[in-house]
Design brief:
Layout: H1 6-12, H2 23-36, E1 41-42, E2 48-49, H3 53-59, E3 72-78, E4 86-91, E5 96-100, E6 105-109, E7 116-121, E8 127-132, E9 136-141, E10 146-151, E11 157-162, E12 172-177, E13 182-186, E14 198-202, E15 208-213, E16 219-224, E17 229-233, E18 238-243, E19 248-254, E20 263-266, E21 271-275, E22 280-285, E23 303-306, E24 313-318, E25 325-329, E26 335-339, E27 345-347, E28 354-362, E29 365-373
Antiparallel strand pairs: 1-2, 3-22, 4-5, 5-6, 6-7, 8-9, 9-10, 10-11, 12-13, 13-14, 14-15, 16-17, 17-18, 18-19, 20-21, 21-22, 23-24, 24-27, 25-26, 25-28, 28-29
Amino acid sequence: MQCEGGYVSKLASIKPEIMKKPILTIVVTLLTTFISIGQEVLDLSGNPQNCSAIDYFINSYPNLKSGANPPSVINVIPSPNHSTYIGDIAFDGKYLWVEGYNEYFLHQISPVDGAIIKSIPTTVQRPHGLTFDGNYLWLADADNKIIQKIDTLDGTVVLSFPTPADPNNSNPQGLAWDGNNLWHNDSKFSGSSGQIDSLFQIDPTGNIINSFHHFSDGPSGLAFDGTYLWSSDNFTTKIYKIDPNTILPIDSIDAPGGDFPNGLAFDGQYLWVANNDSDMLYQIDIGFVPTGVSDLYQTQKGLTIYPNPASNQLTIGSELLPINKIEIIGLTGKVIKSFQPNTRTINISDLPDGIYFLQAVIDDRRINAKFIKQ
């Protein structure tokens, strides 16, 4: 996104004869021009921010791109109506949730075409972090330096607590849920010397479990795939795969869509990236295979399950008989339920909504099919 008016038009308004003046006059003129457009400068997330001339130079520092590793894009959808400054996104097992600067709404949207399913109100003007824990949304308020737990029914704030970084010198960013606790990126203010870029693990009441120095320069979006963290960076426009035990990058890919990949969410197989530069959401292939599940994790010929998505029961069909063992496996690779051999109808009504894998053992082969419980 570019701010209205933009700094290019302001620079163009400088009279050519000024450039013939002494160097001191030129410097003063340029600084005055930059300061006069401070309200049109973007912050580290691509949202409007009041900046000084020095802040402008820092925020406009060229991206530190090294090499190219473009992702495979599966789907692209637009941001919801009027969400011209995307903050972050979350996935609730079926739909995406999107937040935007100065929107005062959280939108639940279709991952197929971006159609708005529902909207709930929020009092947060600058939401920079969003994740879903299976029941509630969690939102990071960048202005007030708090994290809110939100009821998806009507937007009621169930719980709130301060963000873990120094509130006088922080820029709250992405949130991720690992099944038990929250992870949170905090990016230092431009030019700040007191605060370093940080990654925190905090419990659901706000207590800090671990805090780490973040290796990247502009950490923003954050997601968890059941094994690894994924963190986007608004300086390098890259997305890093991170070992949560060492907090070191294992791999990186180029973020699609431009300079502000603010939001990340994992949908059980693919990673979603919300980019504030293009105002688009990208579903990308990260080569995900859940721990404990073979690389035949998609529905294979000879093994079918229906309906999918399902609410109460799944019916299993297979040309490969007999089935020796049937298990339901979560995204972390943990076996959640087991069934008798040759069972053809299984009850899933007690499973929380989300994405699972059904694994059938047939003649010592493990064949898997992904399904959605809703």
